[in-house]
Amino acid sequence: MSLFKHGRYSGYLRPISYIIDLTIINGVSVFYLLNGKDPIIFLTIISISWVLLSVYSRFYEVYRYTRPINILSLIVKQFILFLLLVFAFSGLYHELNIYPRPIVKYALLCFLLITIFKFTIYYLLQKYRTSFGGNFRTTVILGLNKKTIALDNFFNKNPEYGYSHQRTFNFKNKEHSLEECFKYILEESIDEIYCSISELSNSQIADIVDFADNNLKILKFIPDSKEIYSKKLRYEYYDYIPVLTLRNIPLEDNVNTFIKRGFDIMFSSIVIIFILSWLTPIIAFLIKLESKGTVFFKQSRNGFNYKEFDCYKFRSMMPNKDAHLYQATRGDQRVTRVGKFIRKTSIDELPQFFNVLFGDMSVVGPRPHMVSHTNMYAKKIDKFMVRHFVKPGITGLAQTSGFRGEVETDKDIIGRVKLDIFYIENWSLLLDIKIIIQTFINAVKGDDKAY
């Protein structure tokens, strides 16, 4: 039997990637960092540490379905860990006289070259699949329903991922049998089997598992209508008892929390010092010039763990008793002329950077709602309360995806909740940066729902 299955090149790619990356970090250190000093100890320690770091950070766990943003996230994580490692080595081994600035330049150069190599391989493989038909995995789907049809469409419409879908078997009305499926899989040398849980009985699933194990076929399951298996379930053992955790939230990890909080403090401080320090007097003058009332508007909103906090904005409306009950609507007469401008450009949200600095909010996260609206949506919108597992944000994935501003129908809030939950379960610092950049672009272009 061949060591590497047809269509699966990870057995070659990962060792090659390790070799090339180790060549880069060692070669750059010899020609740039060490300057003729004895490299043996440094190269040995750095090479071993790189391999251990890669295992810990899963740096080489890049698959055909991995998104570029996730690859970039892996690179940044590995870069930070590697930089800290080299700093630690230079502090413990003084004989080489390695200084901080050259270390930073060395690490940046290494990761520039590694990034170029990693993305080159990623896109070359995609090109190889689409243009030459190579590196494909043949698939079958067992069970016919909306989800399997959607998966079938995904395979057919995205050839760059390298899946060649051969057939979907329908078990309704006994149109197909398992024996017929198994015979087809063996005759056509199918690589991967996708099973719809809702379309199969427990005994059928057990037979499919046995068949896949005995014939070295990759077996994957599509979640049933309850959708519990669509989550990022965390598998743990309590002694010898397997336990599944429904939702894996990256920001529950102390390291990720520290990184996000550090970024929030740094970013909010920059905005407060370099923008709000001079912009606030100008906006205050314009607000006062047009209408009587306070410059800042304070409103109670629900944040992390459903805790209430005071959210600050530049006042954009005439003072009114309904401000805490009703959102601004298109053509709202309460909005002042200055208010229309600062709402359109999102300038009215800038005082919330003080909320970020105080720890009530984050730069990026689910947008907080008025307390009255939170109570209403919690009763009628499924999974609405999941948004309170993390701190609310000044901007968020939902806001940059067309769900900002007024909630006109339940479809708006349902779409917002889905994107907020996706953000919570897939948080990364790079995703935060991407959302911030998109928010800035939207503010410059003008958002149709910013009124």
Structure description:
- The strands form four sheets. A four-stranded parallel β-sheet has the order 2-1-3-4, with helices on both faces. Strands 5-6 form a two-stranded antiparallel sheet.
- Residues 1-9 have low confidence and may be disordered.
- Helix content is 52%, strand content 12%.
- The protein has helices at 10-33, 40-57, 68-92, 100-132, 146-157, 178-187, 202-214, 254-290, 337-344, 352-358, 371-380, 397-400, 410-425, 429-445, and strands at residues 137-142, 163-169, 192-196, 218-222, 234-238, 241-245, 296-302, 308-314, 362-364, 393-395.
- It is built from 14 helices and ten strands.
- Helix 1 packs antiparallel against helix 4 (100-132) and helix 3 packs antiparallel against helix 4 (100-132).
Chart the SSEs and their pairings.
Elements: H1 10-33, H2 40-57, H3 68-92, H4 100-132, E1 137-142, H5 146-157, E2 163-169, H6 178-187, E3 192-196, H7 202-214, E4 218-222, E5 234-238, E6 241-245, H8 254-290, E7 296-302, E8 308-314, H9 337-344, H10 352-358, E9 362-364, H11 371-380, E10 393-395, H12 397-400, H13 410-425, H14 429-445
Helix pairs in contact: 1-2, 1-4, 2-3, 3-4, 8-10
Spatial order of strands in the largest sheet:
2-1-3-4
Give the count of structural domains. 3
Using only C-alpha atoms, the radius of gyration works out to 27 Å
For the biggest sheet, the summary is: 4 strands, parallel
Total of helices: 14
How much strand? 5-15%
Helix and strand composition category = alpha/beta
Q: Indicate the overall shape.
A: flat
